[in-house]
Every structure is written in structure tokens, then in C-alpha cells.
Q: What sequence folds into this?
């Protein structure tokens, strides 16, 4: 069956005007610096934008996956006959029906498509069913008889070192022993702390869904919300026993993406079922299956010891960082590298001894979630800075100012910070920003309307007199692009046909705004207002995953280079006609003019009757792996942020309301003010969720209540007032456009800032995220 048989309501675009980050009307209609709206904005608002769950094909079958009810068990037998004999069931598959590689993985090939002999985590796929109705498929999956020999799960990562191996590859995935400076150095003042970070789920708005369509050449096409379609294709082809060119991944609309869009939780069973039945097969996961089918943020245990002199200058940082990877390796080695490298934060530290481990357990798998590794250590090192300030009797901001990093300083990995690092400027900005007013009483001293804003709201159990306001500060950093020698490369093609330009690049639009940015780049370089971005599939050259700001940098850079090549093709005939070089011609406001004004024409006139195109690649400068002592130039560039949190805490009940988050961020260059503000606000809100409510509860390896009732996400009522008080536009000279990653660093810093504010309000040593009510009750 061809892809032409797959139907959905097409997306529609609409030209809209926008506003800049500060709220003022943006003057530029298009190009870099304008608040150009996404082309799909109207379709998404109207509910006509097609996602994978909306797709349909002639002869469609429905799939369901049987998942393990145990976190650790030996599979004694699997009887699929009860399912296969049910009316309407077309196929039942298990590990025996995987024709290619038995295991897969983005970094380490250690995860089976279906459990073979051993179940290693709760919810692991055991079998899959295709039937003519979704209810039939679910009933058939439940009818499969699996006999288990239940084993004792390894759920404590500290015990994983001595426990029986969870996996044939062992329990230890990676150990990084970072050593920097003098290990014997000590400070006059020493503070210690133990910190625990919980298991945050990506909790996408739309759960996983996909459609697999068999091809006449024996291959398969998969329509899904992938963020890295070429890697998905290669892993799926290896599992299916096919050549990569026999598998095509077509990217549908992505309803939010982090770790959940990098798993093959639905693609593999669907592809196998489609090839087995010869029919299109679709699966739209429910919320429980979504929680069980994708990776989560690494739960982390952190032990810290900070040394400082009597003036508050850091002397040494010691840390032990333990990441719970769950059953499989996934991105854990990368997350550990970030955690160890940034364990001291954006501070100058002359000596460091930091050990990091990532271990397998029988807990749910962990993987890439925005700010992985960096978020966990930020909560810990900022807790240590607050503790050190209290020991020294210093203002927490002043202590930070004495130690902040700047361009030219060294990371504990020995790498020189060559990018702009305006950390002091960011901290000053949030410190000097006006504070929000305190709640005011109404007439005659009666409770005012602000009582709604107190923890618990009006008529709540709490006493407004027990509410204390706290103010906390935090600094943080993230790395951009891949690290430790990752080959970051992207390819883009720009084509101009008369007044219309088209961009083809396999960089997936996940909500980060790449499609809009690509349009703006072409508008800026070529002066063409109408620009279309082609839908992504694996027939295009690869662009890599959408994480760590890489599409702004690498894919945006490829689009810019291709557009500049087309620009040269456009200008060369004009320049030759007037005996000048193309460098003497400029394109602005849809016009081409020469330096002396002799030549002046419109872009539309110059393009009339022409078809120009060019393909280009962008590849940043290489990095290197960390060595045996954690040293090496592992990162391409860094981004920084400072956040001041203001919270109100009911110190009797432990309820918390985040009043305001003031943000100052190092952005390099503002490319789209409206999108930038949205990304920062989203990152802060996600960080507030990690600080207060988001924790996937797991008991002895079993996920408890995997639903959005027991996993409370911040709502519009929970989201604080987010004020962007400063955007530092100091361009990174090695990055295209000079721009930096925007959305990850607020996620990293926000939880630490909220924790600092709760500490200030209660006097309690908040050392666990999310913050539990008992930790927010003030000392008597």
C-alpha cells in the first residue's frame, strides 16, 4: 500500500503579526528579529492540524501491546493461542517474530523489542496484537497467557553495585572520576549536603501514536511523531531485518517532545505487525501506556562537600553523583557526562574531585529529558551555595557574585569557556529587579482578593497568618549540541521558484520553532517573504535529533548556508552586468541595491522566470570525549541563566505557591522575540513542576497510578508570573546568527530557585525535589 492511501486533514497556514519579547509591537514583518508566527498556528488552534492519532488508511488494523506486570521476572512460557483464536485478530507477535537484531538502542544496543527470557522493568513489552478493532486488540493482548517466575527486583541504585546483574552487560553503565587541581586542598569553611532528585516524566500533551503501512518491496512506512527520524529508521530496519532504504519514517505533527519522542515504543511492534499482516496497522497509546512506554528523567542521589575560604571564595568542590538509569542504558552516559562536568555550576572552582556513576536497576528506564544531568546537579550545588552563605553569615547573592564564572575561566573538565558567559550580569539583573507586592488586605482589614493567591486559596484549611514569603536565587548552565565527540551535522536545501521559496531539511518541528526560524532565515537572506518548509521524512538527508538547541545552530546554519548560495546565484548576473562583485550588493526590504545606488531593483523582478536552488551542510567544530580523569574539551558551547524565585509558603501546612519567577538569560541573539519568550516561559513552568509536583511514583519497581491524576502537572493556575528582566545578546561568534539554546536552561535553574526561596521562607534545608509538604513546614 502506498503512502498516498494515508489521509488526514491538512494543516493550514496564516500570516499573523506578533510582538517582541518585551511586549512591544515588532516593526519587522519578517526575517530574523521579527515575531513571525508559526505557519501552523491557526490549524492547531482550530483543531485541524493532523497528528499521528488522526491518521487513517484503507484496510486499517489496530494494535495493542501486552506489557509486563512485574519489574523483574523470568519468562517461563508465552501462550499466544488464546489471543490468536479470537475473532477479528489478524496477528500476534513476540520476540520469536523479530527477524533482525534482537536488541536496539540509540547509544547502547541493550534493549529488546520484546522481552525474550527476562523482564527487566514494569511495563516492558512482551507481545503485540493486530486486530480489526481497537477493543478486540486490547482484549486479545490481555488474553495472552504468560507464565512468569517472579524475581527480586533491584530498585535501589546504591545497591546495584553489589547486586546480581540486571542485564548481561552488568549494572554499571559508566563511571566518571573527575579530578581537577589538588585533591588534598581544603578550605577554612566546609559544608556538606545530601540531595535527591525525583523521576520527572515528559508527560506530553499527546500520547504516542503511529501508523505503519507495508510497501510492495517488502519494506514498511511508519508515520509517527519522531524527533530523530533517521535514527528511528536505522534502528527499525535493523530490527526488521531490512535495509535502511526499505524503511521510511514520515514525521507527523509532534504534540510536544522530549524523551517520549525518542523511544521506539510503538514503531517496532507496528512495523512488524504491518509486515506480518500486509495491512496498515495503527496504535494510539492511552495515558497509562504512555507513562510506561517512554523514558523519564534520571532519579539522582547527590552527595556534596564544598570548601571555601573565610571570604566566601570557593576552594574545592567534592561530589558523588549517582544516576538511576533504570533497566537500559539509553542516554545515561551522556546525562552523566553533563552532570559531572557541571557539578560545580557556573562558578570558578580551583580544585574538584567529582565521581559520577550511572547504573542499571529494575526501575523504569531513564533517558533524555530537557536539561538532563544539569538540572539535577544545579539543585544540589545551589543548595550548597545557600548553605555556605548561611555558615559564613553572607548574603547568598553576594557569595555567588564572588565566585561567578566569566569568559576565559575553566570548567572542572579543564575546558576553557570561550563563549560569552555573562553570569555576573545575569545575577545582577535579577537581584535589582523590583519585587512583587505583598498581598493587600481589603476594606476594613477584611481579606482582600489576593487571598485567592495564598497557598490553599480562600476558605482553605490554612491560616493566612501562617504564610511566609521567601526569596531565592539560582544560577545554572547547560551545554548546547551533542558532546564528547558527537558528530553534529545537518543538511538543508533551499529552492526559489519565482516569488516563492521552499526549504527542505529533516529537522523536526517539535514546538521549538525550527520551521518558523527556517522561514525567517530565508526571508532575511533572500528577501523572499513567502517561504514554505517541506514536511520531514527519511527520503531527505539526515539532520539529527531535536535536542540541546542543535536545530537552531546546526540545521539553521545549514539553511543559512544554502540560502546564501542561492543568494550568490541570484546576484551574480546583476553584479556582472554592472561590473561589480556580489559583495557590493545588498538585499533588504525586498529590494536589491548596490553600494553606490546605481543598481536598484526588487527581488521579485530579479527572480522572475528563474528557478534557483542549493544544498549545504553545517557541522560545528569537533569536541572530544572526557578522559580517565574527566578532562577534555567535551562541549561546543554553553548557555547560562539566573532566576529569582518568590514564593509564599504556609509554614504550618507546607503548601507552596510560586508568586513570581524573574529570569535573566544569556541568549546570544534574539531571533524571534515572541517564540523566545514562549520557550522561556515553558521552560520555567516545567521547572516549577519538577520543583513542586511532578514525581512518577515507583514502589519496588512498580509504577503507581500512571495517570495525570496521580502525576499532577502545573496548570495555568499553578504557573507563576514569569518576568523576563534581561536578555543578554552577546553573540557566540562560532554559532550561526550568534544565537544560543533557550528552553533548556530555565528548566535547569527554576527548581533550584524555587527550593532556595522555600529555604528562605521556612529556614528548612530543602534537599529533595519535588519538595514535599513536610519539608516546607517551618522549624518551631
A:
Amino acid at each position: 500500500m502506498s503512502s498516498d492511501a494515508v489521509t488526514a486533514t491538512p494543516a493550514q497556514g496564516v500570516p499573523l503579526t506578533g510582538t517582541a519579547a518585551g511586549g512591544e509591537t515588532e516593526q519587522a514583518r519578517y526575517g530574523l528579529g521579527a515575531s513571525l508566527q508559526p505557519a501552523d498556528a491557526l490549524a492547531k488552534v482550530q483543531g485541524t492540524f493532523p497528528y499521528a492519532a488522526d491518521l487513517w488508511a484503507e484496510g486499517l488494523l489496530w494494535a495493542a501491546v501486552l506489557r509486563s506486570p512485574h519489574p523483574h521476572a523470568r519468562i517461563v512460557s508465552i501462550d499466544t493461542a488464546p489471543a490468536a483464536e479470537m475473532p477479528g485478530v489478524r496477528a500476534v507477535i513476540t520476540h520469536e517474530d523479530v527477524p533482525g537484531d534482537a536488541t536496539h538502542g540509540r547509544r547502547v544496543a541493550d534493549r529488546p523489542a520484546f522481552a525474550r527470557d527476562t523482564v527487566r522493568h514494569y511495563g516492558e513489552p512482551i507481545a503485540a496484537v493486530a486486530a480489526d478493532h481497537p477493543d478486540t486488540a486490547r482484549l486479545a493482548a490481555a488474553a495472552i497467557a504468560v507464565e512468569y517466575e517472579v524475581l527480586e527486583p533491584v530498585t535501589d541504585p546504591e545497591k546495584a553495585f553489589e547486586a546480581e546483574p540486571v542485564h548481561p552487560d552488568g549494572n554499571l553503565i559508566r563511571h566518571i572520576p573527575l579530578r581537577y587541581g589538588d585533591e588534598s586542598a581544603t578550605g577554612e569553611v566546609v559544608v556538606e549536603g545530601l540531595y535527591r532528585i525525583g523521576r520527572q516524566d515528559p508527560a506530553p500533551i499527546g500520547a504516542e501514536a503511529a501508523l505503519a503501512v507495508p510497501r510492495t518491496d517488502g519494506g514498511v512506512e511508519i508515520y509517527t511523531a519522531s524527533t530523530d527520524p533517521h535514527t528511528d529508521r536505522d534502528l527499525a530496519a535493523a530490527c526488521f531485518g531490512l535495509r535502511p532504504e526499505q524503511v521510511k519514517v514520515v514525521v507527523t505533527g509532534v504534540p510536544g517532545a522530549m524523551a517520549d519522542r525518542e523511544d521506539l515504543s510503538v514503531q517496532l511492534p507496528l512495523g512488524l505487525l504491518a509486515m506480518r499482516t500486509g495491512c496498515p496497522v495503527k496504535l494510539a497509546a492511552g495515558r497509562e501506556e504512555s507513562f510506561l512506554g517512554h523514558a523519564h528523567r534520571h532519579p539522582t542521589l547527590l552527595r556534596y562537600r564544598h570548601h571555601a575560604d573565610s571570604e566566601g571564595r570557593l576552594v574545592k568542590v567534592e561530589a558523588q553523583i549517582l544516576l538511576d538509569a533504570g533497566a537500559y542504558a539509553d542516554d545515561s552516559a551522556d546525562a552523566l557526562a553533563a552532570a559531572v562536568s557541571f557539578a560545580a555550576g557556573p562558578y570558578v572552582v580551583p580544585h574538584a574531585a567529582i565521581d559520577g556513576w550511572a547504573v542499571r536497576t529494575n526501575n523504569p528506564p531513564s533517558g533524555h529529558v530537557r536539561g538532563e544531568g544539569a538540572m539535577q546537579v544545579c539543585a544540589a550545588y545551589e543548595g550548597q551555595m545557600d548553605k555556605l552563605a548561611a555558615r559564613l553569615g553572607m548574603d547568598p547573592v553576594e557569595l555567588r557574585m564572588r565566585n561567578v564564572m566569566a569568559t576565559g575561566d575553566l570548567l572542572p573538565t579543564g575546558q576553557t569557556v570561550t563563549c560569552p558567559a555573562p553570569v555576573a550580569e545575569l545575577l545582577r539583573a535579577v537581584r535589582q529587579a523590583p519585587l512583587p507586592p505583598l498581598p493587600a488586605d481589603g476594606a476594613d482589614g477584611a481579606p482582600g482578593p489576593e487571598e485567592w493567591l495564598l497557598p490553599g486559596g480562600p476558605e482553605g484549611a490554612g491560616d493566612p497568618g501562617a504564610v511566609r514569603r521567601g526569596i531565592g536565587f539560582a544560577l545554572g548552565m547547560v551545554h548546547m549540541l551533542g558532546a564528547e565527540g558527537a558528530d553534529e551535522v545537518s543538511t538543508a536545501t533551499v529552492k526559489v521558484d519565482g516569488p516563492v521559496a521552499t526549504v527542505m531539511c529533516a529537522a523536526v518541528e517539535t514546538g521549538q520553532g525550527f520551521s518558523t526560524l527556517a522561514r525567517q532565515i530565508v526571508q532575511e537572506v533572500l528577501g523572499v517573504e513567502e517561504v514554505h518548509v517541506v514536511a520531514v521524512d527519511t527520503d531527505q538527508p539526515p539532520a539529527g535529533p531535536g535536542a540541546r538547541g542543535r536545530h537552531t545552530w546546526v540545521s539553521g546554519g545549514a539553511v543559512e548556508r544554502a540560502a546564501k548560495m542561492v543568494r550568490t546565484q541570484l546576484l551574480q548576473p546583476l553584479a556582472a552586468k554592472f561590473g561589480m562583485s556580489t559583495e557590493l550588493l545588498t538585499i533588504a526590504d525586498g529590494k536589491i541595491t548596490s553600494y553606490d545606488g546605481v543598481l536598484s531593483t526588487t527581488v521579485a523582478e530579479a527572480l522572475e522566470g528563474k528557478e534557483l536552488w542549493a544544498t549545504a551542510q553545517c557541522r560545528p567544530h569537533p569536541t572530544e570525549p572526557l578522559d580517565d580523569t574527566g578532562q577534555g574539551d567535551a562541549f561546543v558551547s554553553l548557555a547560562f541563566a539566573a532566576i529569582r524565585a518568590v514564593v509564599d509558603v504556609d509554614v504550618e501546612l507546607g503548601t507552596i505557591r510560586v508568586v513570581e519567577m524573574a529570569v535573566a538569560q544569556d541568549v546570544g541573539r534574539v531571533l524571534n522575540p515572541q517564540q523566545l519568550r514562549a520557550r522561556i516561559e515553558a521552560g520555567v513552568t516545567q521547572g516549577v513542576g519538577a520543583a513542586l509536583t511532578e514525581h512518577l511514583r515507583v514502589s519496588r519497581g512498580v509504577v503507581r497510578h500512571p495517570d495525570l491524576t496521580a502525576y499532577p502537572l502545573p496548570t495555568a493556575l499553578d504557573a507563576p508570573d514569569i518576568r523576563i528582566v534581561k536578555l543578554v545578546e552577546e553573540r557566540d561568534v562560532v554559532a550561526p546568527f550568534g544565537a544560543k539554546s533557550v528552553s533548556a536552561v530555565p528548566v535547569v535553574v527554576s527548581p533550584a530557585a524555587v527550593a532556595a526561596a522555600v529555604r528562605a521562607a521556612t529556614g528548612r534545608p530543602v534537599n529533595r525535589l519535588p519538595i514535599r509538604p513536610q519539608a516546607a513546614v517551618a522549624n518551631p
